[in-house]
Amino acid sequence: MWKTVLKRVLMMIPQMFLLSVIVFLLAKAMPGDPFSGLIAPGTDPAQIERLRELAGLNDPWWQQYLRWMGNALHGDFGVSFVLKQPVSRVMGDRIGNTLWLSLMTTIILYIVGIWMGMVAARNEGKWQDKLLLIYNSITYGIPAYIIYLFAIFIFGYTLRWFPTGGTVDVDASGFFGILLSKIHHMILPAVTMALLGTVTIFTYIRTGILDEQVQDYVRTARAKGVSENVIFRKHILRNALLPIAANLGFTITGLLSGAIFAETIFGYPGIGQLFTSSIVQRDYPMLTTLILFSGILALIGSLLSDIIMAWVDPRIRID
């Protein structure tokens, strides 16, 4: 299996190259530049032109791409036009926040989603099933930012249970004090994102259980006198979890690439919030790096999902 994994990794190299070209061209095609709207209206146009020349924005696109890619291969993604800091440093400061938020969200998402699917499937047609189907239909149809704003208003401003921005309290001190403060800041965005994202896992689990419990091997086990709990736990649920395992890689890398709306609305300084500010401020070095980072994570997510699927089900082999 590991030879196949190595082959897949080597195949990702040309995919990453093509991705980098597309990302760079799309970023360059955006209207305006970092100096548009950020300089006083009375500034001499010649001075603005000199700034563009010094930044290399007047060079042919392929020269800009080769310069950017050559530096990127050495870990240098340029300097943020807005923050005046190396892009790698800014991302390094933010990626840890997104990583921990993504981890908490993923854990809550899978626990709640799997539980919902099991309850609905084992009570097919009953009020529990109907209630969970209605809930997931509503959360799937309502724009997420509306729920985010509602959660902030209720739990942040009205009840004051959770903070409405940042990652740690200014008065937090000591290792455990800072750790508890960070967890406290993550709870509201993590729980909200998880409760709004259960529809995929819920659907997979519910459909999988309903399909598996009518299979011939289940009838055979029942005819042999095997208890219903054993049949459900060791056979039905195990097979129903396979699609969820295959989706795990995409879920992790998708959250890691940045929950753009969630981090922006909750005021959580992660990769998603940084992505939004880079678009608004036309920060090309930061923007191209973030988009490339997200694309690479998508490729890694595909590979990771295949590996997880082959690990949990030996019958499956990666082609």
From TrEMBL:
<feature type="transmembrane region" description="Helical">
    <location>
        <begin position="99"/>
        <end position="121"/>
    </location>
</feature>
<feature type="transmembrane region" description="Helical">
    <location>
        <begin position="183"/>
        <end position="205"/>
    </location>
</feature>
<keyword id="KW-0813">Transport</keyword>
<keyword id="KW-1003">Cell membrane</keyword>
<dbReference type="Pfam" id="PF00528">
    <property type="entry name" value="BPD_transp_1"/>
</dbReference>
<feature type="transmembrane region" description="Helical">
    <location>
        <begin position="286"/>
        <end position="312"/>
    </location>
</feature>
<feature type="domain" description="ABC transmembrane type-1">
    <location>
        <begin position="95"/>
        <end position="305"/>
    </location>
</feature>
<dbReference type="GO" id="GO:0055085">
    <property type="term" value="P:transmembrane transport"/>
</dbReference>
<keyword id="KW-0472">Membrane</keyword>
<dbReference type="GO" id="GO:0005886">
    <property type="term" value="C:plasma membrane"/>
</dbReference>
<dbReference type="InterPro" id="IPR000515">
    <property type="entry name" value="MetI-like"/>
</dbReference>
<feature type="transmembrane region" description="Helical">
    <location>
        <begin position="142"/>
        <end position="163"/>
    </location>
</feature>
<comment type="similarity">
    <text>Belongs to the binding-protein-dependent transport system permease family.</text>
</comment>
<dbReference type="InterPro" id="IPR035906">
    <property type="entry name" value="MetI-like_sf"/>
</dbReference>
<dbReference type="InterPro" id="IPR045621">
    <property type="entry name" value="BPD_transp_1_N"/>
</dbReference>
<feature type="transmembrane region" description="Helical">
    <location>
        <begin position="241"/>
        <end position="266"/>
    </location>
</feature>
<keyword id="KW-1133">Transmembrane helix</keyword>
<keyword id="KW-0812">Transmembrane</keyword>
<protein>
    <submittedName>
        <fullName>Peptide ABC transporter permease</fullName>
    </submittedName>
</protein>
<dbReference type="Pfam" id="PF19300">
    <property type="entry name" value="BPD_transp_1_N"/>
</dbReference>
